[in-house]
Amino acid sequence: MTLDTIAAISTAVGEGGIAVIRVSGPDAVTESAKLFRSKSNIVEAPSHTVHYGHIVDPDNGEVVEEILLTIMRGPRSFTAEDVVELSTHGGVIAVKRVLALLLRQGGVRIAEPGEFSKRAFLNGRIDLTQAEAVIDLIRSKSDRAFSVAMKQAEGALSRKVKVLRHQLVELLAHIEVNIDYPEHDVTEMTNQFIHEKSQHACMEIDRLLKTAEEGKILREGIVTAIVGRPNVGKSSLLNALVQENKAIVTDIPGTTRDVIEEYITLGGIPLRLLDTAGIRETMDVVERIGVERSRSALEQADLILFVLNANEPLHEDDRQLMEQLQGRPVIVLLNKSDLPSNLDPSELGHFFSEESIVKLSVLEEIGLDRLERVIRDMFFGGELESADLTYVSNVRHITLLHEARKSLTDAMEAIDIGIPIDIVQIDVRTAWEQLGEMIGDSVSESLIDQIFSQFCLGK
Ligand SMILES: Nc1nc2c(c(=O)[nH]1)N(C=O)[C@@H](CNc1ccc(C(=O)N[C@@H](CCC(=O)O)C(=O)O)cc1)CN2
Ligand SMILES: Nc1nc2c(ncn2[C@@H]2O[C@H](COP(=O)(O)OP(=O)(O)OP(=O)(O)O)[C@@H](O)[C@H]2O)c(=O)[nH]1
Ligand SMILES: [Mg+2]
């Protein structure tokens, strides 16, 4: 495939030490050479070499920038094409001037978002799951999400999908033989064989799908709503977890009016924390809107941190909230445990299990480690380190896995009710194709465009 030559600023535009323009395509080296004055002749230079020199405006000979230029010749490059990287001084001006000069010559055009990664895909250097992992890498907000994406970028998920597809190809071959030689006793055996193999593939798919929930959490964080009646210490808890004074804390009930959102990682677990207004009946118009927002945060939460003031007996507002928390994933926090306890814990026993109740003093930072352990037990069964870090977290992948699974169960059902084998074969083939779509076999151009358009510019 011969494509044109593209360029873009690949570093975040803003103040920084250096900025990098990436150029990729057949004319990357010759087009860069037209602007580059150096002791080296980069047209002749070997791959993976770095050259010092200046960018000179060919129209007037003016020196525009002092740069370092890197050459990576295809296919040994990120895009598998000839790649030149121009490292300019940081800031916005220098890098934009150099890019403008490069584009002005007419042999290079500006890249679309994700186009470098798209080329790596089109040139067969990476498959679709790997390309999608690159988006996850950029967006990951915790070390762990990053490790998972890195693993996928290396091709761990696609290797699993390829193994599955290989098994289905063998199955298809087996069916083919049977269609050609349809003797009765062979048919019996084949039916059983197809059934077993399909069952096995379904189990593998289920195993991958089971990781999806965790994968989503790792990527997006557990949506965690801190709720409770006014003044129990919700905002104090947010601040303690964030280790910054993000939310206003006062001893006046009804301090927090809006939902405050912060992203943290607690012992490697990413949480999207929502501090909410204390929930109570109120005539105050502003506070009432706040309480409504608290309720909607409560609805969308994956995890609810229900804060109580252990220094006071259970309040009517606490009881009402407790009713509403029935059946939801809740951790009860008995806050202010530095003060004398006036709350009868037996009253909580009806609603919450003992393991989900944590004694806390935000003021003295007691109990936060226990909270961390309880969250870990709830969401990862205490086991955070998945054996091989392969998680399915992409909605497209999840959908395709479900579809492939459906095709395989269709095949098994068809066998059970005695449908001819050449019809059964269609279901197995469909499953094989659906798995292929995951890694980018036989995907449409518009889907490819849609996937890569999610990337940022210069990636
Ligand atoms: N300056 C710079 N830093 C970067 C990137 C980049 O493109 N430029 N990357 C962009 O995301 C990442 C690194 N990814 C890369 C992946 C493959 C190749 C590459 O040249 N691959 C060759 C192997 C070359 C060799 O083994 O000697 C190949 O696969 O053939 C380069 C960068 C992160 N850092
Ligand atoms: N003794 C003690 N006081 C605490 C503790 N945690 C919070 N407080 C105090 O309780 C008061 C209320 O704290 P906030 O964090 O504003 O309570 P809130 O639940 O966010 O209140 P609203 O926003 O009004 O719903 C403040 O005076 C805090 O200093 C604790 O662990 N021990
Ligand atoms: Mg508050």
Automatic annotation (TrEMBL):
Residues 221-380 form the TrmE-type G domain. SUPFAM superfamilies: P-loop containing nucleoside triphosphate hydrolases, TrmE connector domain. GTP binds at residues 231-236, 250-256, 275-278. Keywords: Cytoplasm, GTP-binding, Hydrolase, Magnesium, Metal-binding, Nucleotide-binding, Potassium, tRNA processing. (6S)-5-formyl-5,6,7,8-tetrahydrofolate binds at residues 22, 85, 125, 459. Binds 1 potassium ion per subunit. Its cofactor is K(+). The keyword Iron does not apply. It is found in: Cytoplasm. Its EC number is 3.6.-.-. Mg(2+) binds at residues 235, 256. Belongs to the TRAFAC class TrmE-Era-EngA-EngB-Septin-like GTPase superfamily. TrmE GTPase family. Homodimer. Heterotetramer of two MnmE and two MnmG subunits. This is tRNA modification GTPase MnmE. The gene is mnmE.
